[in-house]
Structure formats: C-alpha cells, structure tokens
C-alpha cells in the first residue's frame, strides 16, 4: 500500500506540474504560433512547477490520511481537495500582500494552480485505486 501511495504522490505531482507548462505552451501557440523556444520555457515551468507541487504534498498528505480514515476518498472529493490545495496557498499569499484581482487575466493567475491541483488530485485518486483496495 505504501508503494502505491508513494507512486501516486509522484505521479500526481508530475501531473500538477504539467498543467501550467501546458497552459503556457497553448497560450503562446494561440498568440504567436508554435515555436521551439516556448517548449524550453515550458520545460523550466514544469521543473519549477514540480518543486512547488511537491511542497503542496505537505498539505495534501495529512488531508488524504484524514479522508481515508473516514472512507471519503471518491473522485469528487479528490478533485475538490486537489483544487483547494492547489489554489489555496497562492490565494492566501495574494490576499495577504493586498493584491486584489480586478480583471479576468488576474483571476486566471489563481485558477491555474487550482486546475493543476485538480489534475493532481484526480491523478492521485486514479493511481491509488478504489477505496476497497486501499483499506
């Protein structure tokens, strides 16, 4: 069980790191067309995103253990928990520094980490397996 959870954590953090990199490549491609330089920047975003995603595991693992002991590890809860854990730290930092988003693009800054967390939560849930396999 520990090996499966460790693999799930690793895969979930990779999935969460891939989201901002993919968003960047798609955004650049929609504006300027695809070019190789964007892939290089996306790789840097992926590496830094993975480090950040690994730090988010400090929030995710206690929450997972809490939910697992209560039998609440379904897809919806995994998606919601991932989105909250992905988006909450940046939202708190933005609020504590006095940054209040006033445009759609500024709100998007908060949405990308939440979507990355959602991808990580769903990937983790998929890799860990069904609740009856966990307990």
Question: With helices defined by DSSP (H or I, 4 residues minimum), what is the helix count?
Answer: 5
Helix/strand/pairing category: mainly alpha
Mean pLDDT: 85
In quaternary terms, these chains amount to single chain
Helix-strand sequence: HHHHH
- The CA-CA distance between the termini, in Å, is 9 Å
- Cα-atom Rg, whole angstroms? 16 Å
Q: Which stretches are poorly predicted, pLDDT < 50 over at least 5 residues?
A: none
Q: Biggest β-sheet, characterized?
A: none
Tell me roughly what share of residues is in helical segments. Answer: over 70%
**Spatial shape:** globular
Describe the structure.
Helix 1 runs antiparallel to helix 2, helix 2 (36-69) packs across helix 3 (75-96) and helix 3 (75-96) packs antiparallel against helix 4. The protein has 135 residues and is mainly α. It has helices at residues 2-32, 36-69, 75-96, 104-128, 131-134.
In short:
The protein has 5 helices and no strands.
Helix and strand arrangement:
Elements: H1 2-32, H2 36-69, H3 75-96, H4 104-128, H5 131-134
Identify the notable features of this structure and list them briefly.
single chain, 135 residues, mainly alpha, 0% strand, globular
